[in-house]
Design a protein that fits this description.
Strand content: 25-35%
Largest sheet: 12 strands, mixed
Number of strands: 28
Strand order of the largest sheet: 7-8-9-10-11-1-2-3-4-5-6-12
Distance between the termini: 42 Å
Structural class: alpha+beta
Radius of gyration: 28 Å
Number of helices: 15
Length: 638
């Protein structure tokens, strides 16, 4: 998760670039605006939208958050040093957790730097986007930084807001007029202006804004101070280039990778996943393509895919086109590029190297499905493949309990997915019912755009979940998510599933729980590329010392201790609801994005996904049955 926190730093870049537009929109006033407001508007325009032919000048200041109501308290006191020269040059520098992160543009190239990691990226239009683009350069051009409306329209903005003049205040030792602007309802509707109140503290001597605040009327308010704002002669060209230290590691990368990172990172700000309401029995088809269809069931997405690899990929990419493109943007260009600054290594360089080693072990059918998905959704083949090779470093828990451990001896298999909550994958959560030609049908509890699996059950009553360990970089084998998919499509029994995992070849270090509802048997697996250990129900292991009859319990640290203690206390009495309760905090982590409970004997399963307020294990579970899902449309459940 460290990478996600680091990339948040560069959200400021996009926010700063949006700030001039926000200020200009907010400067609107009645027909006769106060002279102070009119002068302030002119100052802002001279920075963000100077008149044609005007002498180039550079605006610089330090932005300081002085109030953050309804937002994380740690924002208060945070500072960002910025500089801007119209139309396409900027500089940004912030301190985060002991690191100085900076970004800038000279109008042609875009750069980003971590001082602590001594690592920098320079986005250039003159290098290829992907390794496969031999002899073809990126060619991206940086557009000018523009406000969303023309200068002439900005001058009319005073007609669109009401203005309240408040008592004068002192800011940075300077007397300031205080003006609050609220867009008129008709302006909000016609120009899609935000429903917020914007307040400006304008220095009386020269009408330069020294502070601005935005309040949404719902308890959230942020106030930012402009410390020592200055509009000075244009900086020299050299001042806009990367200020790299002699011992910095500098990577020159495709400019488009960095320009796509900014909106991908920014898009996660303020996104809220709604909490699911009560179960109503809703079921409706919302999209079709070929043999595939998408249904909404009680507010959740259920995607049905059937046929050859090409047909399944085309159905997936066509029906979920928006979601696939969202996944590529968020995973590759948001999380991926952002992780570069936490690790001090270029993400695309690492993942393309991993792909080169993984791809020889990937089945041809899987590649054909990926390529069909890419073609149907309109993303590059390289993007679809890289997104599906994204390292699955999950830190999770899993268990299987049955026999003497449960009421009536029923088998329950729980799977807790602790990974990347809050980066946006929740929007892509999907129950994917797979009916591949010539293989077992199965259900993938995953995300639109991902073709492999980390949580699944097949029609032969085999269920599986995984937990990530160490060993990143050992890529000479089948991707874990494809290996698990092979179990789903090929295994009839638990022993066959174990043998598929054993022969691999495997990558990295992973742990698995596999259960078989036909025989009421379960096993834990600890595997690396060169080692393979099975932990059968009731067995002990140095890392799993608390063995109990008819249970397989796999987790780590305090989460393992909590899980085993809960099983011990409820032993012999577990039913569906109490088995689900095993997955609540602290067994799940704060990153818990999905939790699933399987009942492999009957092919029932219950799925919970994280929302904007809660981890998955604390949200509503939705019930499904694989046997019913595999019925021909209109036969069952209608």
């Amino acid at each position: 998760m460290k990478a996600i926190h680091t990339q948040a730093l560069f959200f400021l870049l996009a926010l700063v670039l949006c700030t001039p537009a926000m200020r200009v929109q907010a400067q609107a006033a009645p027909t006769a605006p106060p002279p102070t407001l009119a002068a302030a508007v002119q100052h802002v325009l001279s920075v963000v939208s100077p008149e044609a032919g005007a002498e180039a000048r550079t605006f610089s200041t330090t932005l300081k958050v002085v109030k953050a109501e309804g937002l994380p308290k740690e924002l208060v006191g945070k500072e960002a040093r910025i500089a801007y020269q119209a139309p396409d040059r900027f500089f940004l520098e912030v301190e985060v957790k002991g690191d100085t992160l900076s970004a800038g543009s000279d109008g042609v190239k875009l750069w980003m730097r971590s001082a602590k990691k001594k690592f920098a990226l320079v986005g250039s239009p003159d290098v290829p986007r992907f390794r496969t683009d031999t002899g073809k350069v990126d060619g991206t051009k940086l557009p000018p930084i523009k406000v969303p409306v023309a200068r002439e329209q900005m001058m009319l903005m005073p007609l669109l807001c009401t203005v309240e003049t408040k008592a004068d205040e002192v800011v940075q030792g300077e007397a300031c007029s205080v003006l609050t602007l609220v867009p008129r309802p008709e302006a909000q509707k016609s120009m899609k202006l935000p429903d917020v109140a914007v307040t400006f503290w304008v220095r009386k001597g020269d009408a330069v804004p020294l502070r601005f605040g935005v309040a949404d009327g719902k308890g959230k308010e942020v106030v930012v101070e402009l410390v020592n704002p200055d509009l000075e002669p244009a900086w020299a060209d050299s001042q806009w280039k990367l200020p790299a230290a002699d011992d910095d590691r500098v990577e020159t990368v495709a400019l488009s990778h960095l320009t796509r990172f900014i909106p991908a990172a920014l898009s996660s700000l303020g996104q809220k996943i709604p909490t699911l309401g009560p179960v109503t029995g809703e079921r409706r088809v919302v999209a079709r393509h070929g043999k595939g269809r998408l249904e909404v069931r009680d507010g959740t997405q259920v995607l049905f895919l059937k046929g050859t690899p090409e047909e399944i990929g085309e159905q997936h990419g066509t029906i979920m086109k928006k979601e696939v493109r969202f996944l590529v943007d968020r995973i590759l260009y948001g999380v991926g590029v952002g992780s570069s600054f936490a690790k001090g290594t270029w993400f695309f360089g690492e993942i393309e190297s991993a792909q080169a080693r993984l791809q020889p072990f990937v089945s041809e059918a899987h590649l054909r499905e990926m390529d069909a998905l890419a073609a149907a959704s309109g993303v590059r083949v390289e993007e679809a493949r890289l997104a599906n090779f994204f390292p699955e470093l999950f830190h999770c828990s899993g268990f299987a309990i049955y026999g003497d451990a449960t009421a009536g001896g029923r088998m329950y298999h729980g799977r807790v997915l602790d990974y990347m909550k809050g980066v946006g994958l929740e929007q892509n959560a999907c129950v994917i019912v797979m009916q591949p030609e010539g293989a077992h049908a199965w259900v993938n509890l995953g995300y639109a755009g991902f073709l492999g699996t980390v949580t699944a059950m097949n029609e032969k009553q085999i269920a599986i979940g995984e937990m990530g360990g160490k060993g990143e970089g050992n890529w000479d084998g089948k991707p874990m998510a494809q290996l698990m998919r092979e179990v789903m499509e090929q295994a009839d029994t638990l022993d066959e599933a174990v043998e598929i995992m054993r022969r691999g070849p495997r990558t990295c270090e992973y742990y698995y729980v596999i259960s078989d509802g036909k025989t009421k048997r379960a096993v834990g697996i600890a595997a690396t590329p060169t080692t393979f250990e099975t932990i059968w129900a009731g067995d002990t292991h140095p890392k799993l010392p608390h063995a109990m009859k008819d249970t397989v319990l796999m987790s780590a640290g305090d989460r393992y201790e909590a899980l085993t203690e809960r099983v011990k206390q409820g032993y012999g009495k577990f039913e569906m609801e109490t088995a689900r309760d095993l997955m609540t905090r602290p067994v799940c982590m704060t990153s818990n994005i999905q939790s699933v409970l399987f009942a492999p004997e009957t092919l029932d399963f219950w799925v919970a996904n994280a929302d904007g307020e809660n981890v998955a294990s604390h949200t509503r579970y939705t019930h499904y049955n694989l046997k019913e899902l595999l019925q021909p449309e209109g036969v069952a459940g209608e």
